[in-house]
Amino acid sequence: MRIDILTLFPEMFESPLNSSIIKRAKDKGLVEIVITNIRDFAENSYKKVDDKPYGGGAGMVMMAQPVFDCLEYVENLTKEKGRAVLLTPQGEKFGQRKAAEISKEKRLVLIAGRYEGFDERIRTGLGAEQISIGDYVLSGGELAAMVIVDAVVRLQPGVLGDEDSAKDDSFSDGLLEYPQYTRPESFRNMNVPDVLLSGNHGEIAKWRQEKSLERTKKNRPDLLD
Ligand code: 6GU
Questions:
Q1: 3-class DSSP assignment, residue 158
Q2: Which residue among 169, 208, 214, 215 is the active-site one?
Q3: Per-residue pLDDT tens for 167-215?
Q4: Domain span holding position 73
Q5: Which pTM does this prediction carry?
Q6: Fewest 10 Å CB contacts: which of 7, 64, 162, 176?
C-alpha cells in the first residue's frame, strides 16, 4: 500500500512514522508513506496558504488553490489516483470498520488541514471523502492522519506477526478485548486467574469471552446495542 500525506507540518510525522510497527512495515516494504508539503504549492511570493474569511469573523481560512494543486500533483505521481480523504471534525466518524475497509486500498491520500476552516470549495470540489476521528476538536488534521495511518497499516497482511495478530483486538468482533497477564503469577498480592494457568483451552476461551462481554457492558454499553 502507498499512503500520501498532504500537510503544512511535515515535521510532525517524523517520529510517529519512523518508530515501532509503522517503521517495521516500511522496512519490510509492505507500506510506502510519502509526505508532501502543501506550502510548496503556494503561488504567491510569501508562500501564503491561508487568508481572512469572507463575511468576517475570527481565524484564518485555508485557501483552495494550494490544496487543489498539491493533490493534483500527488495524484499524478502514480498510475492510479487512489482514495482521497480530507481530515475534518465535520467528517464521517472513523472506526475499526472504516479502517478495515481503507486497509484494502492500494493507494490512500490523506489531506490534513488546519482547523479554523477550509475554503468550502476544498470540501465540495476536491472529490475527497471527509473523515473525523471523534467528537473533539484538534488544531489540525495531522494527528488524525497519524491515527488513520496506524490503524490501517497494522491491518496490512504481514505487518503483525502471528504473536501480535489483530484478530483478538478490541472491536474486531464488536467487543472490547479480554484481560491479559504475563509473569509473574503474583504481583503485589494481585494474582493471575487460575483458569489461565490451567492449560484447559476450552475453559480459557470461555473465560475470555465472558470477560470481553463483562468489560464491554461496563465501559462501552453502546457497542452492545
Ligand atoms: Cl480529522 N481534524 C481536526 N482538526 N479535528 C478533529 C478531527 C480531524 N477529528 C476529530 N477532531
A1: coil
A2: 169
A3: 778 887 899 999 999 999 999 999 999 999 999 999 999 999 999 999 9
A4: 2-153
A5: 0.95
A6: 162
